């Protein structure tokens, strides 16, 4: 990889980890506030911290890290970028960073306590939405840069399938660009005019529907780069090839098709959307589970093939032959293990009737901590351990590897404690997004907190362990970025692990993007055209539309 490309990737990683530090600190404050153990100064409130925690970790850490990973992988697999692509990537980075700074300043100053989902009827300063718009524009510029690089590669390699990493990157970016259309429409045509006072009202239900048009595929924008590491990096770490090139590519295509027309599964309890459209989108949600099941199948097959090749016998003997002492593998394996209950929880959420039980409770908070907070975040951590030394040319020393193990295990323990407490409390009825102090007026609600997992101490212990683990990660990141000695010997250089993938039998039409974009648009029109046009036509004139909660 050219030095100039490394610099772009490292700058993205730098901002990702600045957001990570502030975001995790807000998370620590969060558990104390919920436990009534911390009284905030008058200029700071629970919702300010909750918004900063969600925006900085779920939206900003992920986005910058994802681009760092995709930029590195594209430069690695398709060759170094040309000057035009680099200009796009730098511009994208700068605009996203400017947007992040503006949006964070608004949150910290108390002008945008609208939570990371930021939809109406909550209202923030207009500048907060301008900041978000800049974040999206910045990611588009970076996406165009990477897509341009890919197009140039395909022109030079006519008739060839692109390397798996590049194929998966382009799928992720297509998904992202289409998904953003919903939130861009809401921010530009609804939130900004409303927040700056140019119009008096907003159609609340329309704005929420446009948000979730974006909000659900957003979670796959986080997940797919983690899946890239699972499909492309993990087989190399366990000493084998990609299990099936066509399965891997097809699973990513299914994500493009089915991750967008499903946003109503976040709005099942809301009025204004007829049951038929909700039901249709629930069915499509069950379709988007399939590529994850294919991924689970492919991962188990990869592990078994590798373990048996190394002499593992019997039904489960191969399991013991996996490279458990390699932190690059172990961290990602634990991440995968979290996705088994995480995915099962998602299926519960998506089931129309069961959603009634869990919606707007702490269960949902538990769900996203064991999806984005563990499978995705722990994969990014596992990637961090080798990606930074690969980019800086520094040594990932034995001492740091040991610390990385402590970091990984402690993150997993903290996440198990905290998310189990959140799931249990949610089932008992504890609402999400509610400062704990409110419970004092409802003595019967206090009984929720008497359980083994569902007590204050478990949640706080989980939260504290997570924070300590996060600080350990920051220490390792700083070491790998600035302080570790430069690698000199051949075996000290950290590799970018990319497994071989046999595409000789992969059908070429899988890489004909126009087919998949066409079907995606058809599915979106089928799932959204009528309910959205109804929402536009039937919003009571001059009112705020449908008030929901
Ligand atoms: Fe979700 C709410 C449905 C996946 C994130 N989700 C959320 C929210 C977030 C989020 C952030 O239908 C909250 C939004 C808010 O603030 O309001 N979710 C699903 C479904 C899936 C799903 C069906 N979610 C995710 C992923 C996320 C994420 C991934 C982040 C990255 N979710 C919902 C619904 C709601 C929701 C409703 C709304 C709830 C409400 O009412 O508000 C599926 O994609 C899940 C499919 C996954 C699987 C698992 C496959 C397992 C694998 C691991 C294999 C393991 C191996 C290791 C190989 C079927 C691939 C072996 C290890 C051993 C130990 C043996």
Automatic annotation (TrEMBL):
InterPro entries: Ba3-like_Oxidase_I, Cyt_c_oxase-like_su1_dom, Cyt_c_oxase-like_su1_sf, Cyt_C_Oxase_1, Cyt_c_Oxase_su1_BS. Pfam families: COX1. It is a multi-pass membrane protein. The chain crosses the membrane at residues 11-33, 53-75, 87-107, 127-152, 164-192, 212-234, 246-264, 284-306, 327-348, 368-388, 409-430, 457-483, 513-532. The keyword Transmembrane helix applies. The keyword Translocase does not apply. It is found in: Membrane. This is B(O/a)3-type cytochrome-c oxidase subunit 1. The lineage of its organism: Bacteria, Bacillati, Bacillota, Bacilli, Bacillales.
